[in-house]
Amino acid sequence: MSRSPGPRPGAGPGVVAIAVVPGAGVGLTLWDMYELAIACAVFGIAQPDLADPWYELRLCGDTTGPDSAGGVFGIRTTHGLDGLVGADTVIVPSVPEACVVGDEPVPEPLVDALRSAAASGSRMVSLCAGAFALAAAGLLDGRRATAHWQHTGELASRHPEVIVDDSVLYTDEDRILTSAGATAALDLCLHLVRQDLGARVAGQVARRLVVPVHRSGGQAQFIEHAMPKTADDGIGPVLQWASRHLDRPLTVAGLARRAGMSPRTFHRRLQAATGTTPLRWLLTQRLALAQSLLETTELPVEVVGERCGLGSAANLRHHFTRTLRISPSDYRRAFAPPALTGKRR
Fold first, then answer.
1. Could you give the domains of the chain?
2. Where is the HTH araC/xylS-type domain (predicted)?
3. pTM attached to this predicted model
4. Were 261 and a residue from 200, 265, 319, 337 both cysteine, which residue would form a disulfide, CB within 3.0 to 4.6 Å?
């Protein structure tokens, strides 16, 4: 997976252009509105206490196509589809339902606009069935992509050149990003905020939306709970304890003993509860702590590595760079608060 950091703080995160394409005669469905509303809630509501300027939002529609104000839900766009071209980020939250479950092709004006936007350097994003539009434009050829698990089979069948992965919440490959359905759209939108403005801002946005800032694992989490609800389950309390003691040399065997299980049982139950393996869960928690420390403290990288349990600075750099595609020092320079940016790291 290839990721690149977004605009630097102070320059603004740029223009987010959303393609609004209602189906002929039916307008926007409930699910279309859900994913559109998620993108508008994250990028369209200014939060100057977190970042100023915030994103500039454009709603772009095909003025020659069906009336976007008709059907089940109506919404008036502020730009034509040509407004997608030149935007910093282009989001396709949906396509007409007939393009997914029927034989109707993705509207050609949308396909043309997406190709032009990608050629202009825009970061291209789809939410759920919006992947069908990116695929129709050829933007997913040879790339890993996802959509709602109910639609991934059809996506793979229609576009065999796309590497369809139905096990993940979202994909991020070379500024082409796709998400699974429903709430996974919010996961991806928060991921974009984290890229552009850092983990601290993304965390604050998530708190205001009353959602987790990051969910490890894949689409299995729509079925399995990310964390067990019962206090006596054995998994939940151990994970909470581990998250408070990440500086310790935690092992799967040690956590299993604390949970009163064999390592094999612990591995199986944690994977069922979180959708990921114990070692990957630990690494995710440690990198999240490292991000927070890099953003909010002046601790040397060596000490950050110790505090988050990754040990040496070299080991922190290895995992941080491999996972986030940016070094700890560059991350700190990009996302530390202005009061710290002029101080020695």
1. 15-205 (3.40.50.880), 224-275 (1.10.10), 280-341 (1.10.10.60)
2. 236-334
3. 0.68
4. 265
